[in-house]
Each structure stands twice: as C-alpha cells, then as structure tokens.
Design brief:
Length: 400
Amino acid sequence: MLRAIKSAWCRPLPITCRPMSAQTLPLAKGTWQVSSYGRCCNSRGMIGLGSLHASGYRRVQLTEQQWYVHRVVKLTFHGLPGNDGAWQVHHRDGNKANNRLENLEFVSNSVNVKHSHADPSRGCGRSKISKPVLWRPVGSEIWQRYASVTRAAEQLGMAVSTISRCCTQRSSAKGFEFRFEKVLESALEGEQWRSMLDPATGTPVPGRMVSSLGRVRLKNGFTYYGSRFQSGYFQTSMRERNGTRRWPLVHRLVAAAFIGPSPTPEQCIVNHKDGNKGNNAVENLEYTTQAENVSHYFARAGGKSTTPKSTAKPVWSRACGREDGWEWHASMNKAANALGLNSSSVSACARGLIKQAGGYEFWLADVPDNKLLPGEEWRPIDFSLLQKDRKLRRKAAGLV
C-alpha cells in the first residue's frame, strides 16, 4: 500500500505546478530577464521581486553578485544615463520596493537627497535632531541663531565641519564666533538616566548618558535618539583618543547600562521584542542567542509559526537527468529529511540559486507569481551593461 502511494506521487510534474516555462516568456530558456513591472525571471524560469533588504530596496543575485532591482530595471529598459551627473535611480512615489519602470527616473545626487528629505515617511528627519547654532561677528555682543549647523553653513558660506568644530571648541573662524544653543529637553514620563558604558571596555564614557527610553545625552547636554541608519538601527558617534570615530548601536548601549552585560557568551545578541529596530526602550530589549534572534525574526514575519515561510512551502524533487518522476514534499524540511540533504541546499535549489542539491533538482510546488501580467514587458538582462554601470559609478566616486 505504501509503495502504491509513493509511486502515485512519482509522476510528471503537473503543468499547473511547474515553474514558468521558457515558452511563457518571449525569450530563450537559460536567459535572465527583467520586466517593466519590476519582476525578475531567472534562467530556470522562476519569477520573483527580489529579496527585500533592510534598507528597503529589493536586491537580486546575478553572476554571484548582488544587484539592486531598481537599477537593473532602469538600465535594462533605458540604458546608461545620458547625463553623467544624473546617475542615481529615484523612486518617484518614495517607495523603495516599487520597481515598476514608470516609477523610476535618473536624477542627480542633490535632487535625490531633496526628494529624501521631502518624503514624509522618512522617519527621523535631521531637523528633529539638529542642534541650533548661535553666531556673532567677533567683538559683537549680540548673538544670532540658525536652526542647524547646515543652515548656518549655507547662509554664511562656510564649511559645515568648520562651524561644527567652532561650536564644539567654542572658537571662531572667518571673523565669526559660534556656539551650540543649549536646548532644554523635556523629561519623558518614567524616563531614567544612567552613565553610558563603552561597548568595547565596559567603562563609563565621560559626559555621556543613556536613558531607559532609548535616548542619548551628549556632553554638551544635547539629547536625541541617535542617528538612524539605513539598516533601521539607531547609532551614536563616539570619538577615540586617537581621533578615530566609532558608531555604537543605541540599543546595545541601553542594554549594557540597564540590563547589564550579556549573561553568557552565547546570549550576546540584543533583540527587539516587538521587532521594531527603532524602539530602544529597555523594556523592549533582551539578550538572546543568534539562533533565538533569527527564530524571533521569522516568528514575527510569519505570524505564530517560528519556521521561516520559505521552508514551509511544498516542493517537487526529482533525480538530475530524469525527464519525469517528480516527487511531491509537504515542505523543504521534509524533502531534505526524505532525501538526506540539508534544508538550506533544498531551499537554494528551489529558489534557483543553485542548479542541483545532492543529485536532485527542486521546484517550488506553488509559485503564484509565475504569470504574465497585462501590459508587462520582459527584456533580457545585459550583464555587461550592469558591470559597466557599476564601474563608472565607482570611478566617479573615486574608488578605482
């Protein structure tokens, strides 16, 4: 009976469960393609939007390198930018994951920055954490005010670094004196303050404080939540005695000050309980192992299950070189257990990252995105064009 059931599964893969065949798209099999709707199709016919990076952009791995999907789409359909100064690809609607061709345009770096600051969803804007600057001509008794160092630099025609240094050292430059304006920060309900501990040595940092609500107070009294990087985490700047600068993560500083050191060498990861990287209140932080941290991430991403969504998807497998004999598995883990393989290898093969795993090839049993969409146009990806674009951008940045 068991043999009969097993043989029933070993049949040619049904058309409805197969990945998109080469005949579905107007290009030859084995060709990487990208669509005007921001979708990518690998050489095996599997379609996806790319992996969502912490920065908010989608990326895809081509020729063993990571590429941003929005650049692949724009370059494939429109080629290299005609203006050397307008090489950045801007998302018109502000959504970094919307890589439809109609949403992309080449812009200069300055224009892209202006769009970024104008975006209401940008989060922690610089205006919220900027330090007001007081200035006056040397010898004058009257101080004047600018909202930030950047604003003062623009109005006075000076370098931002020069004004910042003068404010810190209480010195003058080009006939002007500068000071940071003291800002009285309102106390937050229930907020407690403790000395900041150097993450490298565990010793207190002179003049620095961190709060139980995730705020940082600098030596000059300025209080803020830190600078939010593209990863989603907040960081603050620390200068070494030799002049070098470090950027420790605020959530690790809060945990060190209020929770203490990690209880064991394995429990060295500071996890955000609610999954929000910007919520650095001590009640939202806990020490975990790397495995627990990853499990928590996938549990929040996929609801109640602590198993990554990708491993819960059914897959088809067959021995390499066979034309039929597909076998269905309820999940990638079950396929790996049945065939004596590693589940990560099965996942990589099913997603098209490798051609085979342990002598077997795998396909996702349900790929809902493998359908042509009305008005969608597909074109082959020109890898040489991508490489040329990357080389030109590195050269412009002085990296080559």
